[in-house]
Design goal:
By secondary structure, the chain is mainly β. The protein has a single domain, classed as Sandwich (Immunoglobulin-like). Strand 1 and strand 2 form a beta hairpin. The chain starts with 23 loop residues before the first strand and ends with a strand.
């Protein structure tokens, strides 16, 4: 009989030594430039917090009417965020607010932000080391 529960022993792997912890990156296909910052300072474990995103197109112009999604994953343990972050446009300048981010464990997390604007879909992943 197979044990039930949270089994992920085979998924443990240390993060690569050369991880990029940048808070601003171009999306995978260079369609958008995305920057995040935590609202309220330091990101803490087991606390709901918010981010502000700034999204610009490849020419540096603000992207004000995008559909944005945020997904978090912990590669070492094979699970994601226990929450479903909600994104709200907060004004001109390509600014968006992400509410409901909660990291449940210390370690390496990957947050992927997907952007759809003017018929173009692209995404970017950010590495975080949550202590």
């Amino acid at each position: 009989m197979k044990a039930m529960g949270h089994e992920h022993a085979m998924l443990h792997a240390p993060p690569p030594k050369d991880l990029d912890y940048s808070t601003m990156k171009m999306t995978a296909n260079d369609a958008f430039n995305v920057m995040y910052k935590s609202v309220g300072g330091h990101i803490r474990i087991n606390r709901i917090h918010s981010w502000e995103l700034t999204i610009k197109d490849a020419a540096g112009q603000a992207v004000n009417d995008a559909e944005v999604t945020v997904v978090g994953d912990m590669p070492e343990h094979g699970h994601g965020l226990p929450t479903q972050p909600e994104i709200t446009k907060i004004g001109a300048g390509g600014l968006y607010r992400v509410d409901g981010i909660k990291f449940t464990m210390p370690g390496w997390w990957v947050v992927t932000i997907s952007v759809m604007a003017d018929g173009v879909h692209d995404s970017v992943s950010f590495n975080l080391n949550i202590l």
